Amino acid sequence: MSGDVVIKSAYVGRFAPSPTGLLHMGSLMAAVASYLDARSAGGRWLLRIEDLDPPRELLGASNLFIETLLRFGFEWDGEIVWQGQRGARYQQVLDSLLECGLAYPCSCTRKMLQAAGRRGVDGLVYSGLCRSGASPCADQLAYRLKVPDEVISVADRIQQVTVHNLFCDVGDFILRRADQLWAYQLAVVVDDADTGVTDVVRGADLLDSTPRQVYLQRVLGFPVVRYLHIPVITNMQGEKLSKQTCAPALRDGREVEQLWLALSLLYQNPPLSLRRASLAELWCWAVEAWDVAKFPQKRSVAVTIDDNYEFKFQL
What we know:
This protein has 315 residues and is of the alpha/beta class.
């Protein structure tokens, strides 16, 4: 374990995995980066399970997440937040947006969206078909946030400034889906605000979501958090290490080796001697040595990793 945690600052970070598969090396890197950024600042670190999409969830994955994090020596502050239990809060926020005319119901089908949309920075750009009113004959309605025809810029502690015109690049985006499941963009903003999160550290694959979240924070009157998007690791074909690309789950009993590898892939250059140290020793070194300046300004880096946790970056 990393020892007793002493809270010294107002920094509040978090790790928020989705239980759609088991934790893998990419997950561990995100957890380690967020944890070290919080602890090196003397701040708090929260754990949130983003169980928003039950049809896609792996049975038992949430409990396995918790067991795995404990096995690696992570220590979170306060109770675990479960998004699946927060629907009433999300509905309260959606109702307030509807009352203010900032959100509206949408009856568009997938076929209509594909016919009227065009490719944007993150999927199809919504054309605004239902801004003037949804079809009264629709069986199910989604709900969207109206976005302005203006530029939203996001400064990041590693990456270049991200600039999106939400109206042109994304369109009015979903807050609640037609199948009644809550959208990630709404849930993450509400949860971060309600738990006092000041800093979000996560993979750069989520960087294009950030302008939407910043705009929603502003609309709701929430504090805008600071962001740090770490480069995600990919295979040599440029595919992100993920559940979809069959990334192997973290191995039980080899926690020190895997934590050492995660620190190496996070450009922290842990001494080779620590590869056979205790978890407590490795965590102690990592908190003291954490240095964001070591990261390259890249969204992704291609890596090969073998069964012995040897790795090689593709420069």
